Amino acid sequence: MNLVVMRHGEAGWHTLDQQRELTEAGRMATAVVARRLAESPWRPDIIWSSPLVRAHQTATIVSEILNCPVIEKPYLTPDDDPGECLNRLIENPIDALMIVSHMPLVGALATLLVDGHRHGIPFMTSQAVMLDMPIAGPGCADLRAQFLP
Q1: pLDDT (mean) for 108-127
Q2: Dihedral of the CA atoms 16, 100, 38, 127 (nearest 10)?
Q3: Residues 86, 58: Cα–Cα separation, whole Å
Q4: For residue 80, which of 17, 36, 105, 112 sits 20 to 30 Å off, Cα-Cα?
Q5: Does pLDDT of 13 surpass 90?
Q6: pLDDT at 118 over 80
Q7: CATH of domain 2-147
Q8: Higher pLDDT, 14 or 53
């Protein structure tokens, strides 16, 4: 499985965290990363996205550039358990998948898959990493590429 994990683009402020929208800079940085991903050998076939506005907007921009569908997943919000996401990866193996979510989930998930623990590495907004995972499990992935805005 090739898994791209991406943090949403820069978002503005809103009284409700769930309603925060991407800024213009966030949209542009996301498009830059999506174009770099499009030029790579690791294009996803499908995108799983957090249902929160800023992540869904990020996934939509990537989807338009890569021409692949987006499916919202309720277990990809900022404070969700990366173990739950891992369980879903095990249950639904997809050869080329992208996940668009938030910190701290993206950092904890990437660390769980590469190092087998949940301490979490930092992700900047619009950053994506490509993980090569022969099988889905803790410590089973190798970091192959990083895409920065």
Answers
A1: 91
A2: 80
A3: 22
A4: 36
A5: no
A6: no
A7: 3.40.50.1240
A8: 53
C-alpha R_g of the chain = 14
pLDDT at residue 19, as a whole number? 84
Asked if residue 43 lies in contact with residue 66, where contact means CB atoms within 8 angstroms, the answer is: yes
The two structure tokens encoding residue 74: 């309720």
The pLDDT, as a whole number, for residue 42 is: 92
What is the distance between the alpha carbons of residues 144 and 65, in angstroms, rounded to a whole number? 21
Question: Structural domain boundaries of the chain?
Answer: 2-147
Strand locations in the chain (E): 2-7, 46-49, 70-72, 96-101, 128-132, 142-147
| Cα–Cα dist 9/28, whole Å | 9
Q: Which residues of 46-83 are buried (b: 16+ CB within 10 A; e: fewer)?
A: bbbbbebbbbbbbbbbbbebbebebeebebbbbebebe
What does residue 132 show for φ and ψ, rounded to 5 degrees?
-100, 120
Length of the chain: 149
